[in-house]
Design brief:
Sulfite Reductase Hemoprotein, domain 1, alpha/beta, elongated, 5-stranded mixed beta sheet, 15 strands, 12 helices, TIM Barrel, 2 domains, 43% helix
Length: 350
């Protein structure tokens, strides 16, 4: 088990649940749009939010954004330690840096400022920005290179008497990412530092979701990962929904609605594909753990329904509502969505 630290009021590591992160993709120069996106992310379930601080304007407006949010706000900094200092002064709940990209005197100042405010620093190592000496040693941004770079950068902060550290090491390659975290966790993480996991530059909704699911799923099932981001070339709100689904699939979160549904086959006599999608979309706001099985026929429908709060399957063009292994109701296509709403409302009210 890793040690526990706090990002704002959110515990990370130890016995805390895996927290979900995302990052805004709108600059501070378009503040109203940035604020709207940040609020949408918060509403979707983002627990820790990161923003880029690449210039003085961003640092100056950091507090204006933070004061309108109820979740921790993290400043993402590269190279210029003065921007990190300004963000800390503006109330940043965490700083993300790559210590190797900062001059020693600047890093010492950032560490001292973060220590004085009792906020953590994330050592964020990426395959695309490894140190020249490490690239020279390994000739490629391999897993060993990422893990060694992370360990080296952690030591830079520890030399500044700073230990409130979160670590990440990401690549666009799923295999490289997973191996890097495993190597770091086994060979370098004696201090049990909490780990931020993610596959960087994973891609569009389709490919990015697949790569993130494979990579993050493998790590989570290994017991590696205290906080996570699904990186998608898409509206960042989609990252939150994806992260929730991954945590649920890994058995680490049972909140919200889960729809169990079959791919259908030639025995199907109802439009279960359309129904499953409608249910998932309409009731995505639900926080209470609810499981619904939407099955095309009775072959597996009865068994799957027994594991759910209720199930729906088809027989001769009708929709059958199951509870346990018993049919409790038969309804037509015109009635089914209203009946589902009624059953869900009963479960929410219980």
């Amino acid at each position: 088990m890793t040690k526990q630290i706090f990002v704002g009021k959110v515990p990370v590591g130890g016995d805390a649940p895996v927290s979900i992160q995302s990052m805004c993709n709108i600059p501070f120069s378009r503040f109203d749009e940035l604020l709207d996106q940040a609020k949408r992310l918060e509403e979707a379930g983002c627990q820790i939010l990161r923003v880029s601080v690449p210039d003085k304007l961003s640092a100056e407006r950091f507090y204006d954004l933070k004061k309108q949010l109820n979740i921790p706000l993290v400043a993402d900094i590269h190279f210029d330690y003065n921007l990190a200092l300004a963000s800390i002064e503006a109330g940043a709940d965490k700083i993300r840096i790559n210590p190797g990209n900062m001059k020693p005197d600047g890093l010492e100042k950032v560490a001292a400022a973060a220590l004085s405010k009792n906020i953590p620093i994330r050592v964020g190592v990426n395959a695309g920005s490894l140190e020249k000496e490490i690239l020279h040693k390994y000739e490629t941004p391999c897993a060993e290179a990422l893990a060694e770079s992370a360990a080296k950068n952690v030591k830079l902060l520890e030399k500044c008497d700073f230990n409130n550290i979160i670590v990440s090491m990401k690549a666009s390659s799923v295999k490289t990412t997973v191996q890097a975290y495993r190597i770091f966790n086994k060979n370098y993480n004696d201090e049990k530092l909490p780990l931020h996991i993610g596959v960087t530059e994973a891609g569009t909704m389709r490919t990015g979701l697949v790569k993130s699911s494979v990579g993050l799923g493998a790590l989570l099932l290994d017991g590696i990962g205290d906080t996570m981001r699904v990186s998608l070339t898409a509206d960042p709100v989609e990252e939150i929904y994806a992260a929730k689904s991954i945590l649920r699939a890994a058995g680490l979160d049972n909140s919200g609605l889960e729809v169990i549904s079959c791919p259908t086959c030639g025995r199907t006599t109802i439009n279960s594909i359309e129904l499953a999608n409608k249910i998932e979309q309409e009731f995505s706001y639900i926080k209470k753990p609810i499981k619904i099985a939407v099955m095309g026929c009775v072959v597996n429908g009865i068994g799957e329904s027994a594991q759910a709060d209720f199930g729906i399957t088809g027989e001769k063009g009708e929709y059958l509502i199951f509870k346990g292994r018993k049919v409790v109701r038969r309804v037509s296509e015109n009635e089914i969505l209203n009946v589902v709403r009624q059953e869900i409302e009963k479960l929410i009210g219980d």
